[in-house]
Amino acid sequence: MLTPQTGLQEIINNCTDNDLKKIAQKVKNSERITEAECLVLFEKGELGYLGSLANFVAQKLHQNKVYFNRNFHIEPTNVCVFTCNFCSYSRVYKHRDEGWELSIEQMMDMVRKYDGIPVTEVHIVGGVHPKMNLEYFCELLRKIKAHRPDLHIKGFTAVELDYMFRKAKVSVEEGMKMMNEAGLQSLPGGGAEIFAAEIREKICADKVDGPGWLHIHETAHKLGMPTNATMLYGHHENYAHRVDHMSQLRNLQDKTKGFNCFIPLKYRSGDNDMSFLGEVSIIEDMRLYAIARIFMDNFKNLKAYWPMLGRQSAQLSLSFGVNDLDGTIDDTTKIYSMAGAEEQNPVMSTEDLCALILNCQKIPVERDTEYNEIKRYDIMDEPIVN
Predict the structure, then answer these.
(1) pTM for this structure?
(2) Range of 20's domain?
């Protein structure tokens, strides 16, 4: 039976390209690859080669474990002051009657719906509504914490936070401290898109720029708040833009060690202003996951967001370096379903998610938001409580 170790050695022995052979040897020796070498992987790395390298790294870090958590999403609104060309989700403020705007009480009803259910995280993210300001969301956070103190609150992209802080006329440092004291414990990775200014100008010109996104996440890290990191790929960017984006994240992780995971997000072309671009193939998806696992050597966790990819592609990603499939979601997110993702009703029970992972000969492990292990499901000899 071919192990990741022997499989990688076979790749090295049979590799006829000197650049790729050198990179494979560095991966075997746990040496960091450079930006230039990462670009080589994009330009010359074939799928089998990349999968072997990524699987070797993932196996060394996690053995056969694949993580998930029990979470639910609250999307306060899809009304937004920004007009990102890739977005199929938001509605501009003057057409807010076409969208939704949840009150604090409506959002608390969603939280109360999970009373007595063993979820560990609520994920709060949505559009940037001009009337849902910093104090509004601080009040929501305080009420959630008062109702269910054990529930981890992960919320608000850097785009939402940047707007809230500017509107409230507070610094990033002041605003993040206010949110943290109100109950916010970690940040999702949304809004990063591609850091390169020339690409942001094409896809999201009017929202927080790359340095602003990085500053907000670095500030969160300094407050002891872990965050996630994302990259939107498969649109106007080229390979060099992807390498630059991942390198900036890797550099900040070297500095703060505050990122929980990296999440590549596939551009979905349904019903938005960039639909003419189409979408990249599943092969390109897997190549990117593998390269991210190889290059992002200080990110222990690589997540495939299954509602975006679909269940079968998410399973396939587990052979290309991915070790996390997000959570049970419970049909509470519309961001990708509105853009034409395979999962139009993204809900899986814990049992469904465990079965999906077990079918790939991997071990399902329930985690909390910060990747502390809660329970392994490798021996399915007891009922799973959803």
Answers:
(1) 0.90
(2) 4-62
Is position 383 within any domain? no
**CA gap 195, 190 in Å, rounded:** 12
CB 44 within 8 Å of CB 18: no
Dihedral sign computed on CA atoms, order 371, 376, 377, 378: positive
Q: How many domains does the chain have?
A: 2
Question: Are residues 55 and 118 located together in one domain of the fold?
Answer: no
Report the amino acid identity of residue 190: G
Residue pointed to by tokens 């440092």 = 173
Per-residue pLDDT of 64-118, as tens digits, reads 999 999 888 999 988 876 665 666 555 554 556 667 789 999 999 999 999 999 8
Quote the crossing angle between the two packed helices 18-28 and 47-62, to the nearest 10°: 10
Query: How far apart are the C-alpha atoms of 185 and 177, rounded to whole Å?
Result: 11
DSSP conformation letters of 165-186? HHHHT--HHHHHHHHHHHT--B
Q: What angle do CA 103, 108, 113 make, to 5 degrees?
A: 130
Asked whether residue 46 falls in the same domain as residue 194, the answer is no
